[in-house]
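hey so u asked for the seq, here:
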Amino acid sequence: MRVGKCPRRAERGGGNSSDDLPGWGEVPTPAGRFRLGPVRLPADLELLAGWMNDPEVDEFWALAGPPAVTERHVRAQLDGDGRSLPCLGLLDGAPMSYWEVYRADLDPLAAHYPARPYDTGVHLLLGPAASRGRGLGAQLLAALAEMILRQRPRCERVVAEPDVRNRRSVRAFERAGFRVAAELDLPDKRAALMVRDRDPHPA
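ran it, structure tokens below
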């Protein structure tokens, strides 16, 4: 499942948002206990590259090819300014998803919507094909959104920008408590801006 990808990374500079996402601990979900773990290269590269080469994933992530393609994408974040952090999602200890948690207000995405300070964005890939199409994405998105809002008190909204063609992703966000706030013309896609507010009844 492809959940958004911004075409360019934020520029280096102030406002570094690096924090200990893998240290946030586990949360219960209907599917099991969920937590984020750090992506480690090269140890996790074979797993991630395998997921990226699934045609259903590649349709929206566009990272199919030799492992070096995935490695460049992930390493740019690991070696970057901390505004985007790649993580493995583990369910009952088993890695089954890939996440990118990023400062949306400091990302090129912010030029395309009325960003607020500390907006936090998420990208999600459900790795094993068996994990897709059964509501698991919505459960994990809801769990992570709650974690973000609890751990980042200055963040008032969690956002994402899935391709509008990816109806499965848009529906998963909606079931996780996000709303479609707008459609955005981004450089590489037309995206649905999904917003999960801290206040369920924003003005």
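The domain at 21-197 is CATH 3.40.630.30 (Aminopeptidase). The longest helix spans residues 136-151.
lmk if thats what u needed
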